[in-house]
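Hi C.,

You asked whether I'd gotten around to modeling the 366-residue construct. I have! Everything is below, sequence then structure, no commentary in between.
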Amino acid sequence: MGINGELWKNCHRLSVSELSTLVIEERKSEFGKLAELMEDPTIEEVWINSPHRIFVARSGVSELTNLVMSAAEVRELVERLLMWGGRRLDLSHPFVDARLPDGSRLHVAIPEVTATHWAVNIRKHLVRGKSLSELAAMGVMSHEISQFLEMAVSSGLNILVSGSTQAGKTTLLNALVGAVPSGNRVVTIEEVFELKPKVSDCVALQTRPPNLQGEGEIPLRRLIKEALRMRPSQLVVGEIREAESLDLLIALNSGIPGMATIHANSARDAISKLQTLPLLAGENISHDFIAPIVAASIDLVIHTTITPSRTRQVVEVLTITGRVENRHVESEPIFTLVNGNYKQGLGNPARIFERGSAFSNEMSSV
């Protein structure tokens, strides 16, 4: 509970100003010398390459700060931050990925994985919680795309969000989940809690690393299987990287709408990658088996990126037609960003929504 533990026990007796001061002091006790950087709303991410090389990112642009710490201060900072999340960091587990009390995401790597110093990243996700219309107002997409995506979510379409690191995939996914119609039950699955959708009926699940004896690990694949027993109306996976992609595809192909993010250079690359990742599940999985499942399970791919002007934008929306030819999953562009303007492609939105409506009617009759 930190240095102000006794005060927190009696926080109901404090005034608003006293409680605000207590929160600030507690934050400073947690983040130490990084407290001012964490309080700065213009800073998106803070990372430590060495005690003398501490960087921040503003609007996607990195800056070297004049802040200097000692090696001991870096270790003490990490130890304090990890106390809340219950994650381990030692020679047998030299990486850690954890969620902090304020919702930020912490990643740490230590020697001998790193050369000399502890590498620390704290990602703040400042615009999480924005709706699709708010993202459109910020210039992330056009209002036409925003309205289209709201209809896509309401129709129960399966959506894949692709992009590079820091391209805004999680923010966009969170906005999409926020467009799920009221009365639907959402189950989110993540390695570390990041999504905070504005949904009344939502269960959030998080993976768990093994204990000191190497037991008790709960991977994404296990969580996807367990989520299917929780009566989800929407299944949301924060990010697919490995064999869990197969479990997600099978779930989507069994009548449960869902969404996920994936790292890729383009929307079409995301489709190709989604055909490759399930092969990690075992030797008995082949391209001939996966391609039809991808074609039948995914309806839309939304690709977002960081533009040369360092802004985040949706640059492409594709629809998967459901057809496969020579292991190639056929897709058609719906919206494409060209020279700063969105051009409508060959994809027929009416046909896409007909597919989603057929699914919705099927589910309502179950």
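If it helps when you're writing up: The two ends are 48 Å apart (CA to CA).

Thanks,
B.
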